[in-house]
User: Fold these one by one.
Assistant:
Number 1:
Amino acid sequence: MERNVTRSSKARLAAGATVLGTLWAAALFSQTTPVMDAAERRIALEKLTVVGSALYIGAHPDDENTALLAWLAKGRKVRTGYLSLTRGDGGQNLIGTEQGDPLGVIRTEELLAARRIDGAEQFFTRAVDFGYSKTPEETLRIWGREGVLADVVWVIRNFRPDVIITRFPANGDGGHGHHTASAILAAEAFSAAADPKRFPEQLAYVRPWQAKRLVWNAWRRPGEERPATAPPQLSVDLGVWDPILGESYAELAAASRSMHKSQGFGASPRRGSVLNYFELVAGAPISSGLFDGIDLTWTRVPGGEAVGTLLAKALAVYSDEDPAASVPALLEALAALDGLERDPWVVVKRGELLEAVRACTGLWLETMAANATVTPGSSVDVTAVALNRSDVPLTLVRVVMPYSPRLYIDRPEATRTPTIGGGTRDPMMPLLKNQPVTLVFALSFPSDEPYSQPYWLAAPHGVGTYAVPGQELVGLPHGPPAITATFVLRVGQQELVYEVPVMHRWTDPVAGERTRDLAVVPRVTVNLEAPVLIFPDRTRRVVRALVRGHEANASATVKLAAAPGWRVEPQGIPVAFEKAGEERTVRFTVTPPEAQGGGELVAFLQSGGREERARSVVEVDRSHIPPQTLLPPASARLVRVDVARPVKRVGYVMGSGDEIPAILRQLGFEVTLLSDDDLEEQNLLAFDTIVVGVRAYNTRPRLAEAQERLLAYVQGGGTLVVQYSTSRDLVTERLGPYPFTLSRDRVTDEAAPVKILIPGSPLLTYPHAVEPADFDGWVQERGLYFPEKWDPRYQALLSMSDPGEPATEGALLFVTSGKGSYVYTGLAFFRQLPAGVPGAIRLFVNLLAGGRSHA
Ligand SMILES: [Zn+2]
């Protein structure tokens, strides 16, 4: 039974934020309790006096100019956002094997980690990063132009930027079709957002918005002379030193940019002047600054002058040693703000003000669950702590915790009085300076509590866009936390209300304290041994499934259902768990049909007379981002394709990470992962074939030395198959027995016609006769970083091109040398094999054979 995602997400939205504006205003604070030092506090107080905003628009995680974001957020102190049209799920992963959806989750969290450093907020559209695109026309066709435009308009109407800045120009100089499309959509959205006739369905939630101007964050080579006829450009120095921060914005940006670890974008700071240029695209002209002609004061908010005066007062009396001295003025400003009409700025600044009060009182609020996960229908203890570290007389009025009928107050036993009925009697506990107040709640989750899932992955998605359940979620980096507690505090006659996500905390022996959101997971999950199961002949095989119980005494019967023609035995396997977190491996025997073809293998769980589709649990855990739990449907793709085994022992030199070794093992090859030491010490001729993984010559410095031995291995009779590396940062120029040079040529259309140049080549005939049909059904792209020039002794075997482009012939190079064979290929086998593409599997096995029988 599938859950009604739309209903539950809406319910969660209602619980997490009573108004949409709050959710948007709180986007930055949803993950961890912010800790502000003296510099951050002062900047936060200064920022309260500035009423202005800027939105930066690019296509991918890493497109953003982090120095500019830091300058805007911390220097100009305007509300700053980065709208990345995609989540970067189509890229390559330099820190693990995740691709696609899980990679997009990693990149989303990396962007949020970067924003926590540069002070900007993060937004997305529903667009999928489907891989490299050569033209904006192709990009907009695959995304669906109107849908993604609607999302950009939606973000603009919510965020209401005064200035919109694009990373790329619309003329194609940005290269990647996604880049150019981001500039085209930004220009269209600049006016569409202001037009009530465009996307009128959004006006149930937001008002039209006209930004003052749209500019391009122009690039210029150092010393570049611009022709006199070129459009004027404004220059801004992002390298100015901020005495409060103790560094420049460009310097700070390096730490922010270094969060893009899955892209290998660690950055060193640039010191000294860093000039940036801006060219007007639309809207009001610029003469001296990006915010020319924009009122950045409280006078732009109807009735806001008094608030502005009080906030200026809070800043005037601010002291690093005694930040609480600013609290009375901040509270007066809050009262004045609450007397104003509900202008969007009032919502945003209210959130900032509450954070400033928190920072100036050293107020610590947390709600920590005893476990990292909870299942529907079960319960978990949550400890809430409120700690006031100032002399400001704060009182805790109540903590509203969903699903908790009883509230215990942790006081000496004699005076302990449970309050029944969700706090009908408010405990009213004074928060004495530096005396934590601890409350323990037992949360009982309803049996239909929705699972925690990234909202954009809750439903299956197509190539171009994610399916998002509910307009309110569109644009947000992630949905509201599973459970949010509400702390109600009082100071004098004023109430202060803080929403605090329920999290779990643990101490990692290496990293120290780590936290994550509490996740709601199924009672039992099933992880099949691989997402793709390949049957190279009619032989039946054992398919393992790792079954995990997520609550004590969970039990179920695991069943696998296969496509017609496939047979699974036994029918079901019962499992039972004593404790939460226990795992069992169950084994099914799957017999393939005689005919080649494919199908799906789906796991079901039967329990208490009910049967439902099982989910897998995928933990994405890296030390620089909070761990994330994904719960995709438990299924695998079945592939029945006749594959010969011309060699036995394969050595694999892993590069930046790919899943090919696991696929080769499924096909029956003996695969050994080779370390640097192995390459330097082992008898390589013990392997029939050695395969070099993607980007190995970019990521493994010791290959520079080991390359001699690999080439000697070819001379001695081995087959060496080298997959693509990029031309930048090669550890050796000598990739093969004869010279060739790499280019950035790629064929991105996965259906681009392929011409076989030398049909009789042994590489294309043994053991499989490769046919045009073997190039059907490929995914994402044909290949990348093809060689452009090569020694004539190489045979170029394939020719291909994207529509309208000249043919490239470097996708597959082959040469025999000494007693062995050498193959270089930029074909994207690292995508095709894990996807179970039959033709690519057949061709790859031919490469392993190196054009000859090893028998
Ligand atoms: Zn990009």
Number 2:
Amino acid sequence: MKVAVVGRGNVGGGLADLWERAGHEVTRVGREGADVADAEAVLVAVPGGAVAEALDNVQGIEQKTVIDATNLVGVDPPEGFSSNAEFVKARTNGPTAKSFNINFAALYDRIGEAGSTPSNLWCGDEEARGVVEQLNRDVGYEPVYAGPLENAAAQENFFKLVFGMVQGGMGAFFYRIAPPDQL
Ligand SMILES: NC(=O)c1ccc[n+]([C@@H]2O[C@H](COP(=O)([O-])OP(=O)(O)OC[C@H]3O[C@@H](n4cnc5c(N)ncnc54)[C@H](OP(=O)(O)O)[C@@H]3O)[C@@H](O)[C@H]2O)c1
């Protein structure tokens, strides 16, 4: 599959590496933007407050299947939207999903070491299912459907619970799998 990743950091760069290893053709897009008209799927993996700016520099994204992996850290979704994913959908008008926002990028290289296949939540449009589930399975996750795109706000907020667990009682568990500065 031809995939474009917008944001070349831990998530965008990390998933790009894994997808390339799985045989996909990946284009990495940074702040300079690009035309992604060729892509069959687009991943958005920029800071949660930078989604509008990032999409401003991406041409050819209309009607594309887009996976939004962003989390809102100390910022709100764009005005008028309850989630970044719904904002993305309003900009692209194509099949849209929220996924890869709950799992830690620091653990991408260790997915295969897990005793059982790690799950990865996704919610979004039915038309995105084939692409999202394949791109999850191709990096070693078992995709778990979490409902329509209206649930994206809940999935974005779920991140706050995960972070609370890291800082709270589950800290020791997470520290065993990765040092806190890598999560
Ligand atoms: N790290 C995780 O474990 C994790 C897990 C799940 C979800 N997330 C979420 O996924 C997103 C990316 O996280 P990350 O850890 O990959 O962050 P990161 O390592 O800081 O990477 C963010 C990337 O976005 C780029 N960027 C910033 N503004 C941009 C713009 N306007 N246009 C295009 N690219 C832009 C940055 O470019 P520069 O290098 O030029 O600044 C950088 O390459 C965030 O929303 C984060 O909350 C992170």
